[in-house]
Every structure is written in structure tokens, then in C-alpha cells.
């Protein structure tokens, strides 16, 4: 079974500042890792995913994440955020079919 | 092309009534998933369909919850004798072939409020 922990429920940052959203996972088997974003009153949209290979994964909207097997982490980063990045971000692990989600991190951008 | 659609977008029902939530996956997608998003529990998996079969229904919280899929396309999630704790946003997702490592495309959800 997998579990996912997002260490911060809310992260406030200033516009154009860098941001890191933290995610740790646990699993007894190999997993695939995902970051999804949910804008207000919308469904989930895939930002990026890690399947294998290079541990640095680049996604849409300038986001990237680094898979660290020894620390069982998959932190999401963006070097400079924009107001439009205000949303809730979900880290997820997948062993077979279903996605197992973390509790989400609400990113708020202050001007 | 068209994405995953869900109806209704909002549903308010009285405790004890039955409700049906509908999901139209992306055309040609054989795998379909239902998730529930609630304040207390976050995002939880409910059930997975491959075609019309449901090989994984481990997330259904009680026997009041059931789902079916017909023609390998539309799916209906039914909640009988609704309770206040069923209030949540019910999300549907689909992808082309199922299996691990593939993006699941999500619909906008149905917000269910049980009064």
C-alpha cells in the first residue's frame, strides 16, 4: 500500500518569489509519482509525473519536481511564481491503478 | 476535443434520499475512475472500471454506494439513503488504457450536499 504526505497545508509566497511544495511518499513497491493542480471550482490537471529515468522532471507552467528515492520525496518547485499559480496542489502515488493523494497544499500568491 | 464531463454540477438532497451522479469519459477511454474529495478525508479513490467491469471497488465506503458502467462509456455512481457525511465533491477521471503511469483526465466534479 502507498501513502503520501504533503508537509504543508498552506504556503503563502510573494509574486516572483521561488516556491517549494513538499511531498513524501511511502510504499513497499515501486510507484509512479504525480503532481496535480486544482484551480478554484475546477477538476484536477496534471502538472508532471515521474515514471523512471532522470530524477528531475519538468512539467507545465514552469514547474519541476525532483524524485529522491533515498529520502522518499518528490518536492515540487518553481523559480518564480505568478498570481495565476494560486491553486491547490496535490501530490499522488500510483502502484497499480488508483491514485493515492496527499492532503493538498494551498498555494497563495501575494502581490 | 471534449474532456470528461459530469452531471449534475451541483446536487442538494435531503438525508435519506437516493442520488445518481453521472460521468461521461473522454471518447475511447476504456479506464474510468471515481474519486471523492471531502474536507475531512481529502481525495479518496472509490472505484475503477476497465470497460464495463470493476476490478477494483475497494474504495467504496459502504454498501450504500454502487456504480455501474454501460457500453464501456457512461458511468453512474449511486448513493442510496444519503447521509450528511456523504457531502463531498465526486470526481470522475478516465484514461485510454488504464494501467500505472498514465495520466488520468479529471472532470469538473459533482458537488453533493446532503441536508
Q: How would you portray this structure in words?
A:
In chain A, about 0% of the residues lie in helices and about 55% in strands. Chain A has no helices and 12 strands. Chain A has strands at about 1-5, 10-15, 20, 25, 30-40, 45-50, 55-60, 65-70, 75-80, 85-95, 100, 105-110. The model of chain B has no long low-confidence stretch (mean pLDDT about 95). In chain B, a hairpin with a 3-residue loop joins β4 (about 30-40) and β5 (about 40-50). By secondary structure, chain B is mainly β. In chain B, strands 2, 4, 5, 6, 9, 10 and 11 form a 7-stranded mixed sheet that branches. The interface of A and B includes residues 44, 95, 103 and 104 of A.
> Which range does the strand content of chain B fall in?
over 45%
Structural class of chain A: mainly beta
Radius of gyration of chain B: 13 Å
Number of strands of chain B: 11
Helix content range of chain B: under 10%
Radius of gyration of chain A: 13 Å
Tell me the helix content of chain A.
under 10%
- Outline of chain A, from the CA principal axes? globular
The largest sheet of chain A is: 6 strands, mixed
Q: What's the N-to-C terminus distance of chain A? A: 41 Å
Low-confidence stretches of chain A: none
User: Roughly what fraction of the amino acids of chain A lie in strands?
Assistant: over 45%
Largest interface: A-B, 23 and 24 residues
Index terms:
heterodimer; A: mainly beta; six-stranded mixed sheet; four-stranded antiparallel sheet; globular; B: about 120 residues; mainly beta
Amino acid at each position: 500500500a502507498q501513502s503520501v504526505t504533503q508537509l504543508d497545508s498552506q504556503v503563502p509566497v510573494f509574486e516572483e518569489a521561488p516556491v517549494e511544495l513538499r511531498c513524501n511518499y511511502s510504499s513497499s513497491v515501486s510507484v509512479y509519482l504525480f503532481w496535480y493542480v486544482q484551480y478554484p471550482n475546477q477538476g484536477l490537471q496534471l502538472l508532471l509525473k515521474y515514471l523512471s529515468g532522470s530524477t528531475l522532471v519538468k512539467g507545465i507552467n514552469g514547474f519541476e519536481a525532483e524524485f529522491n528515492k533515498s529520502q522518499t520525496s518528490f518536492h515540487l518547485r518553481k523559480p518564480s511564481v505568478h498570481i495565476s499559480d494560486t491553486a491547490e496542489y496535490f501530490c499522488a502515488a500510483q502502484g497499480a491503478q488508483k491514485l493515492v493523494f496527499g492532503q493538498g497544499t494551498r498555494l497563495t500568491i501575494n502581490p | 476535443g471534449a474532456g470528461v464531463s459530469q452531471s449534475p454540477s451541483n446536487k442538494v438532497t435531503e438525508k435519506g434520499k437516493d442520488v445518481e451522479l453521472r460521468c461521461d469519459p473522454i471518447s475511447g477511454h476504456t479506464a474510468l475512475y471515481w474519486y471523492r474529495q471531502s474536507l475531512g478525508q481529502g481525495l479518496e479513490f472509490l472505484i475503477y472500471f476497465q470497460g464495463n467491469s470493476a476490478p477494483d471497488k475497494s474504495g467504496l465506503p459502504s454498501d450504500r454506494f454502487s456504480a455501474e458502467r454501460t457500453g464501456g462509456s457512461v458511468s453512474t455512481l449511486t448513493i442510496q439513503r444519503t447521509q450528511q457525511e456523504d457531502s463531498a465533491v465526486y470526481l470522475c477521471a478516465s484514461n485510454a488504457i488504464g494501467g500505472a503511469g498514465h495520466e488520468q483526465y479529471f472532470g469538473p466534479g459533482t458537488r453533493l450536499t446532503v441536508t
